[in-house]
Design goal:
Elements: H1 6-18, H2 26-36, H3 42-67, E1 87-96, E2 103-111, H4 113-124, E3 140-148, H5 159-175, E4 179-194, E5 202-204, E6 207-209, H6 219-222, E7 225-240, E8 245-272, E9 281-282, E10 284-291, E11 298-309, E12 312-320, E13 324-341, E14 344-345, E15 351-353, E16 362-376, E17 379-390, E18 402-417
């Protein structure tokens, strides 16, 4: 038998043991990933909670209005004692109290009790005067009879009703000049990356660990990614400032995605070192089944972002007339990312995992566009290229790698007047 040195024996054992390694399929790893990082159901829960709150509020408002309504008694009693020769002067006051105004009408009726009763009943039916009694021996009676219609109290005019009326009136004034545009923008999404593997020492388990040395390199050289198809849809209002310049603002939704080339692997720890001024920074750890290189088989990871945005900007007509013209526009877009399904590369650039705590929710985007606008029939169409860029990183500042999203698309819009 051949005598092996210690080093040769170790190499032989390692070589033989690798022949008997069993690697689970990709499906197994994906199931593990789903168990460890389930997709949150907060979106459905949020919509359900919003619907519940809206329903309770509507019921409460309806109850308040009902409680504040002055009821009308259909069985209001009154009685007159028949006195054949009694003369009655009656002052009848009608109070009609709408939401914010009241009117008073007075009239005098002279006659016998029976005549007064008949006059009131004919003039004010079906509402009957309140109780009035003429005692025996009284020769003359002055009665103030209040006849009112059912009204709602002033409190029923809530703050929200006043605010809504103000908004509607303002919209009508703007509508005399404003136009609305509904648009869609198929786009190609990509990203710009910046950063290097962290050189900060951080505490890992019970010993100090650093990502220095051979793996420390620029993230642009370490990551392989490519564009993906996105989408934008929304509506904006144009309000003319002068013949060429218009203010525009509205609401839109964006879907952005790009793809990452990676490899499946066995579960291991993906560590995210964070920026910290101390000697040691607390790292964030997540279980990863995807490697940046040297894995079992190639996989494609898809990073997706779902966003709401409020574009605010200016539109300038460069040339042309109302029927056919060329315009350019620029907007600033405060953005809320309500869903983010992204794989982040570990700060040693070796693994991919999901770590939602590092994603930024609020961001700011800018967009520039050039459009050809033309009228066909009763519709005005707009078409042209658009470029959208995310100003802040998709990740929080403590994550040392920066990502800025980009979209290039063709914007198609339909413009209609609102008056």
């Amino acid at each position: 038998m051949r005598n092996y040195s210690k080093e040769e024996l170790e190499d032989l054992l390692k070589e033989k043991s690798e022949q008997y390694l069993l690697y689970p399929s990709d499906t197994v790893w994906k199931n593990i990933q789903r168990e460890l990082h389930p997709r949150n159901g907060w979106l459905s829960a949020s919509f359900a909670a919003l619907l519940l709150i809206a329903s309770v509020t509507a019921i409460w408002i309806k109850k308040e209005v009902h409680d504040n309504t002055v009821p009308v008694s259909k069985a209001t009693a009154y009685r007159f004692v028949e006195l054949p020769s009694v003369v009655v002067r009656t002052s009848v006051v009608h109070k009609r109290v709408p939401l914010m105004a009241s009117t008073v009408e007075q009239r005098s009726i002279t006659g016998t009790v029976a005549q007064v009763e008949k006059s009131i009943r004919e003039d004010d039916a079906p509402v009957r005067p309140p109780l009035a009694i003429v005692a025996p021996g009284m020769s003359e009676l002055n009665m103030n009879v209040a006849v009112s219609t059912p009204v709602r109290l002033k409190e029923s005019r809530t703050f929200w009703q006043t605010a809504l009326q103000t908004v509607v009136q303002g919209a009508k004034k703007i509508g005399k000049k404003g136009t609305w545009q509904v648009y869609v923008t198929p786009s190609i999404g990509y990203r710009q990356l910046e950063g290097q593997a962290t050189r900060t020492n951080y505490q890992y388990s019970v010993y100090s660990y650093s990502t220095n040395a051979p793996l420390a390199r620029n993230v642009k050289d370490a990551v392989s990614h490519r564009p993906g198809v996105g989408f934008e849809a929304g509506t904006v209002m144009f309000y003319p400032i002068n013949k060429r310049l218009s203010l525009k603002t509205g609401f839109q939704a964006n879907y952005h995605q790009y793809q990452i080339d990676a490899y499946s692997g066995y579960p291991e720890m993906a560590t995210y070192a964070v920026n910290n001024s101390g000697a040691f920074a607390s790292a964030i750890n997540a279980v990863s089944i995807y490697r940046n290189d040297n894995g079992n088989s190639h996989v494609t990871l898809r990073n997706e972002h779902y966003m709401f945005a409020v574009p605010i900007g200016l539109d300038y007509r460069v040339a042309g007339n109302k029927a056919f013209n060329f315009s350019v526009a620029s907007t600033v877009q405060p953005t809320y990312v309500f869903a983010n399904y992204s794989y982040l590369i570990s700060t040693n650039l070796r693994n991919y995992a999901k770590e939602p705590s590092l994603n930024r929710r609020f961001n700011i985007n800018t967009a520039v566009e050039a459009n050809i606008n033309f009228t066909k029939g009763s519709n005005t169409w707009s078409i042209g290229p658009q470029f959208r860029y995310q100003l802040l990183s998709s990740f929080k500042d403590k994550y040392p790698i920066k990502e800025n999203l980009m979209d290039m698309g063709i914007r198609v819009g339909l413009i209609r007047t609102i008056h």
